Structures are given as C-alpha cells and as structure tokens.
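Fill in residues.
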C-alpha cells in the first residue's frame, strides 16, 4: 500500500468513524480500483525456457488443485460455516 493510499483510507475512515479492519481494507480496495490507469506490461526475457532453473522446474510433480474445485460449489443454507456478517460491524 502506498503512503498516499494509506492516508486517503485513514482520512475516509476518520470521517465516517470506521474502526473495523475489514471495512478499512474494503475502503483501500475501492481507492485502488477507482481511476487507476492500467498497469504497464512487464518486460519478459523470451529466453526463460532455456534457463536451467526453468527446465528443472518442469520436472516437478503437478500440483493438486482439486481443493479449488470445491470453492465454487454452492453450500445449502444451514450447512457448513458461513463467513461473519461484516456489513453490520462497521465500528
């Protein structure tokens, strides 16, 4: 977080008397997405596949991403644990 983003977030939180950390994070995210120019493209060395470290890494085991498949499943009301309702806790 840049210094100016931090100051903007704290000023807004002070104005609205916000003390909840989750709300402060949402304010900062809001500021980060408003009026921001697209990020510049990264300079990529096109010879990276030829590097020894890259080639050694290609021999590692394939990661198991099955856990992420469950993230999109819909949980019926009353089942599992629901996230805390942060909308009501603003300070």
């Amino acid at each position: 977080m840049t210094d100016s983003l931090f100051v903007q977030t704290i000023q807004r939180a002070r104005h609205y008397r916000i003390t909840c950390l989750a709300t402060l994070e949402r304010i900062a995210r809001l500021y980060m997405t408003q009026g921001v120019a697209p990020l510049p493209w990264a300079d990529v060395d096109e010879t990276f596949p030829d590097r020894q470290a890259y080639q050694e890494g290609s021999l590692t085991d394939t990661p198991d991403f099955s856990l992420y498949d469950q993230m999109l499943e819909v949980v019926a009301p009353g089942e599992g644990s629901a996230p805390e309702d942060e909308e009501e806790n603003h300070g």
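Residues 49 and 56 are 10 Å apart (CA to CA).
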